[in-house]
Amino acid sequence: MREKNEAGEPRDNGRDQLLVIPGEDLGDSQGLEPGHGVMEVNGRIKALKQGMMRKNGSYISVEPIHTRYFPRPSDLVIGYIEGCTNNIWFVDIGAPFNAILPMSLGPGKAEFGGTRSIMDVGDAILCRVQEVEETHSSVVTMKGMGLRKIRSGTIEELDPHLLGRLIGKGGDSLRRLKEATQCRIVVADNGRMWVDGDLSGILKVRDKVQSLSNNPAVQKGGRN
Amino acid sequence: MGGYGDVQMIDDKGLRMDGRGPGDLREITIETGVVPVADGSCRMTWGTNEAIVAVYGPMEAHPRKIQRQDRAVLDVHYNMAPFSTTDRMRPGFNRRSREISKVTKDALESVVLLELYPRSKIRISIEIISAEAGTRCVGLTAASVALADAGIPMTDMVVSVASGKINDVVVCDLNKEEDNYGEADLPMGILPNSGDLVFLQMDGDLSQEEFKQAWNYNMEASNAVHKQMIEALKGDANQ
Amino acid sequence: MTIPLVPNLLRAHLAELADNDSRIDGRDRWQGRETQVEVGVLPRAEGSARVQMGDTIVFAGVKFQVMQPYPDRPNEGGLMCSAEVRPIAGRNWETGPPSPESIELGRVVDRGIRESGCIDVKSLCIIPGEKAWQVILDLFAISDDGNLFDAFALAGIAALRSAVVPAERFEVGDDAPLGVSKTPIMCSYHKVGGRFVYDACHREELGGDERIHITLGDNGNVHSLQKGLKGIFSTEEFDEIMGHALSRTSELRDLIN
Lengths: 224, 239, 257
Description:
The complex is a heterotrimer of chains A (224), B (239) and C (257).
Chain A: E1 17-20, E2 25-28, E3 33-34, E4 38-41, E5 44-47, E6 51-56, E7 59-64, E8 76-84, E9 88-92, E10 99-102, H1 115-118, E11 124-132, E12 138-141, E13 148-150, E14 154-157, H2 163-167, H3 172-181, E15 184-187, E16 192-196, H4 199-213
Parallel strand pairs in A: 3-7, 10-12
Antiparallel strand pairs in A: 1-6, 2-5, 4-5, 6-7, 8-9, 8-11, 9-10, 11-12, 11-13, 14-16, 15-16
Chain B: E1 28-32, E2 40-46, E3 49-60, E4 73-80, H1 95-109, E5 120-130, H2 135-149, E6 159-166, E7 169-172, H3 176-181, E8 184-191, E9 196-200, E10 203-204, H4 208-234
Parallel strand pairs in B: 4-5
Antiparallel strand pairs in B: 1-2, 2-3, 3-5, 6-7, 6-8, 8-9, 8-10
Chain C: H1 8-19, E1 35-39, E2 47-53, E3 56-67, E4 78-85, H2 100-114, E5 125-127, E6 131-143, H3 148-161, E7 164-165, E8 176-177, E9 185-192, E10 195-198, H4 202-207, E11 211-216, E12 222-228, H5 235-256
Parallel strand pairs in C: 4-6
Antiparallel strand pairs in C: 1-2, 2-3, 3-6, 5-6, 7-8, 9-10, 9-11, 11-12
Helix pairs in contact in C: 2-3
């Protein structure tokens, strides 16, 4: 039974799992390295997000209940073409801002002005993050093994922080899912996965993804 | 502000028309996750005020012209639904709503870590479903809960309360009649962990002493509201 | 509203689901989502309702104003319906002047209620030629996961049926319930993957084609129809959905009354 005092401040009783909210004081910062979702202010660690506090050795962080994807170079991502100019496609990769795909990094050869004939608005693509600039806009590329326009199957979405549970230790859970459903499954890093196969198989994968989303580790929120 | 002291709103025992003492808050409830399609949301009732706030984002900032290269922008819309007031409010452009949208945005931009999401925007929709004085305070407070629910990083929550003066007595959390016939209104937006402010407005007539009293009422009240926010956001996770 | 991105894979997938008599959320073709109706939820309105259908949530509020009757109709009051879908309800809804989508929403729901004659505008007269009641029904969306039409229509009629005329506040008599003689109910059908389904969710609307809205009254009388968006449908298809509408409107009517 975890105790909390009247003001809801966490007590350090040696356990490392606790739901915290923005602004909450998490204790003295000495010897601790602030990670995701926390910051150090005047010798104290402060939570910045609502989520689970995690202490891993000296590394302290808050894992939010809903994570958002942040692109990093070499991430495999599934994107949707949102728009294009004569030589650039704008790609929605589920991040706070769109990525760009220059024609030179697109699939095959194309003439200037011919973007729509290759890939149009609404198409889904499997691509890789090439670079993330200083202003955090990202460039994706389709030059690479297995990168392509997705022509069949469906795209399922899952909160990025649940991907680990889907894949399992050493890829175990994912392997079993593929066998059970006879589907081709490609899990990207941005919380999206490409599922292709028989309709019944696709529906089984969808059920599995739903059950992971509906069964969060934390019962958050509530009436007051 | 009307108020020439001829409407008796507080008796000599210090009891207000709705039975509250001078420092008492109206009843508050807070719920999260009430707009299923949003990234974060909050429903707050405060007396007979009711606000529903939804947060979307961070997402690509459209139109291009509002985008900033170095940080996210907050797109805040405060609005009163037509059936929120005794006399119906016509939908459409409303100067008061525009002003409240702006000062609410200014308050929230002071706590959200905007630099983490350059070139994007976070949309905050504050809808007042039922109004009974203090709607800007309910809206701002509920918005901060909705932002937390959406996983947006903030240096602290924002608690907004208003105090004022009725029949020459300083009181906390004005209700509708007190706001209409009272002599002053002081809404504040407070960061509960530091006691710092991100929102401040005032109108009416307060002596320096009365002002200090109203200020302190707001500070005390914000602690009580903060406790409720914590309960709502944590649910029974920690028990 | 901004036109949302339609992932091209979605349409193909919806077609495959339709061929297999399935829907993207696992429902049957004619199955509606879980529906809840609550009345008396808005303290400042003279009548109100909140409807939730799946993740679609809307409010309806009834407000009364006193108006001067039109010169050519001195014994009649008025009924006005207004629908608002504000940005709170979804990523694709924007601020600004009412979009064509929300205008259509308001007008289709308005016709369904008005044309049923469930409110007798003559009964709204206070003093002939001088004063009459104007009944204003405001429909307000909180969360859009598809089929705002049916949610608005249901909330609207539920709010009207629970409304009380505020005669005392306007000093023209005693408060009394608003006279609503019927319960018109709307059912909406969306062509998804090549066939009509009932109560489309957001993704079905996104990847679907035309839609048809049918409002029926207490005896199955047809009060209003509307076909929206691009697409062609046959008489057989229409007969099929009318058949479903007859039974479903009855169920929803019982829910309200």
